[in-house]
Structure formats: C-alpha cells, structure tokens
Amino acid sequence: MAPPVIVGLTGGIASGKSTAAAYMRDAGVPVIDADLIARQAMQPPSVCLLCVRLVFGKEVINEHDGTLNRARLGQIIFGDPKKRALLNRITHPFIVASMMAQLLWQLLVRLQPVVVLDVPLLFETKNVLWICSKTVVVACEPDVQLARLQMRNPELSENDAKQRMAAQMPMQEKTKLADIVVDNSGTQSDLRQQISALLQNLYPSRRAQQLYRGIILSLAALVGYTFVRFATRR
Ligand SMILES: CC(C)(COP(=O)(O)OP(=O)(O)OC[C@H]1O[C@@H](n2cnc3c(N)ncnc32)[C@H](O)[C@@H]1O)[C@@H](O)C(=O)NCCC(=O)NCCS
Ligand SMILES: Nc1ncnc2c1ncn2[C@@H]1O[C@H](COP(=O)(O)OP(=O)(O)OP(=O)(O)O)[C@@H](O)[C@H]1O
Description:
Layout: E1 5-11, H1 17-26, E2 31-33, H2 34-41, H3 47-56, H4 70-78, H5 81-109, E3 114-118, H6 122-125, E4 134-139, H7 142-152, H8 158-166, H9 171-177, E5 180-183, H10 188-202, H11 206-231
Parallel strand pairs: 1-3, 1-4, 2-3, 4-5
Helix pairs in contact: 1-10, 2-5, 3-5
This protein binds dephospho coenzyme A and adenosine-5'-triphosphate.
InterPro entries: Depp_CoAkinase, P-loop_NTPase
Keywords: ATP-binding, Kinase, Membrane, Nucleotide-binding, Transferase, Transmembrane, Transmembrane helix
Pfam families: CoaE (PF01121)
C-alpha cells in the first residue's frame, strides 16, 4: 500500500476502540483521538464550552469550578436525538478542525507513513471518512458490549447504558461498512494479536516510505525556495 495510510478506527460505544488504539500507540503508530479532542475543547475557558452553556443552560456547568458536568450533559443528550444533534453541531467543527491540524502535522512534519484517526462517529457523521484510506471497526456482541460498558461506567443503569448504545449506528451496520473488522469478543490479548497482525499488513513497503519522504521533502524545499525568492525580490 502506498503511503500515507490514514486509518479510520471506529466501533460501538465500549466495543474496545481505545484499547485497540492503545495497542497501536504501543507499536509506535500515531493515534488522533476524537474523544480526547472533545474533552480538551470543553476545558474552560473555551468557546465550545460557552456555546454549550448558552444552548443547554447553566445546569450543565459545575458551579464550583466552571467545568462541564459531563454526567448531566450525557443524561440530556443520550436520551434525546434532537439535543444530541445540537451538541454535535457545536462540538464537531472544533473536533474536525483539530483532527485535521494534527493529521497534517503527523503527515507533513513528522513524515509518518501511517496515522490512525480514532473516531466513534466515523460512519454516522462522515466528517473525516473521506480522508481515510482504510476503515477498521472494533466489534463485539451487544451483550458483551453492554456488560463492558456497565463495568467501565458503573454509575449507568442498564437503561442508560442501552440508551447510549442506541445513540449510535448499530454494530452490524458498522461492520458492513468497514474495510477490516476486528473481533473483540475474546480477551484483551486476542485483541492485541489481531492489532499487531493488522498493522503488519497496513504498513507500506520501505521503498514506498522512502519515496513518500522524498516527495514531501522536495515539496518543502520548493516551497521554501519560492518563499525566499519572493521575500528577497526587489
Ligand atoms: C456527552 C458527553 C459530555 C458525555 O461525556 P462522558 O464522559 O460520559 O462520555 P465520553 O466523552 O467518554 O464518551 C464516551 C463515548 O460515548 C459516545 N459518544 C460521545 N458523544 C456522542 C454523541 N454525540 N453521539 C453518540 N455517541 C457519543 C462515544 O462512543 C464515546 O466514545 C461527551 O461524550 C461529549 O462531549 N460528547 C460530544 C462530543 C462528541 O461528539 N464526541 C464524539 C466524537 S466523534
Ligand atoms: N477484550 C476485552 N476483554 C475485556 N475487557 C475489555 C476488552 N476490550 C476492552 N475491554 C474493556 O472494556 C471497556 C471499554 O473498552 P474501551 O474503552 O477500549 O472502548 P471504547 O470503544 O473506546 O469505548 P468508548 O466508545 O466509550 O470510548 C474498558 O473498560 C476496557 O478495559
């Protein structure tokens, strides 16, 4: 495969995306995490948090420190598709802009041949789908997913957890859209093995990587030369 390879990593809630992403990072692959960016975008002071406060009211803001009350906002948006769509309209432009900036950094400055975009709503919003050369879905059976979600978030009732699962495209549909499906119904060590095999197949040949670096460095030299010529012209 020719570089750069941009992998869209997705799956259902608590299906194991972050765990798979952590194994990819361990293998040295840069991962750009949409959930992390969303959290950073909501750190006060921020325009995103201000918009959330204006739209959802001050009940979603913690009084003592002005941070986002994630549990409260979660209760509101996971039970109401219209409010969820509103939140998405506020947060997604920030998330996409930051992901693109980080992607350009990894591809053009760090010259990485493979970059992973970890995006829970990859197929639902399609915001960054167009740039992905491969899509990977981490999947597991719905009962396993529910059990893992409740284990990780014990504060959620069974109903809340099911509501969160229903807020996304059903797993079966995601697996149909994926180029590669990683089955995470087994142990974490099974998952690690699958990720390691997947990465071996994704990496471009050494020759293709050298060619990619050569092209980017030549382009950078050309841009630099043009800039200097332009800046020093009389
Ligand atoms: C609603 C919020 C405050 C709940 O916070 P909480 O700490 O409980 O959950 P966390 O952020 O860890 O998300 C856990 C999972 O929920 C799912 N999820 C999050 N936001 C959404 C959404 N808008 N629609 C559907 N599923 C979502 C994802 O699978 C995500 O991995 C938070 O999820 C949020 O700010 N969401 C909006 C940003 C967003 O769309 N993120 C997904 C990026 S593609
Ligand atoms: N194979 C596995 N066996 C047992 N537990 C697992 C396995 N894979 C992941 N888990 C656990 O399941 C939970 C959910 O996994 P993870 O956070 O990776 O999912 P996610 O898809 O990133 O979730 P979210 O969509 O909420 O961000 C975590 O507590 C994780 O440790």
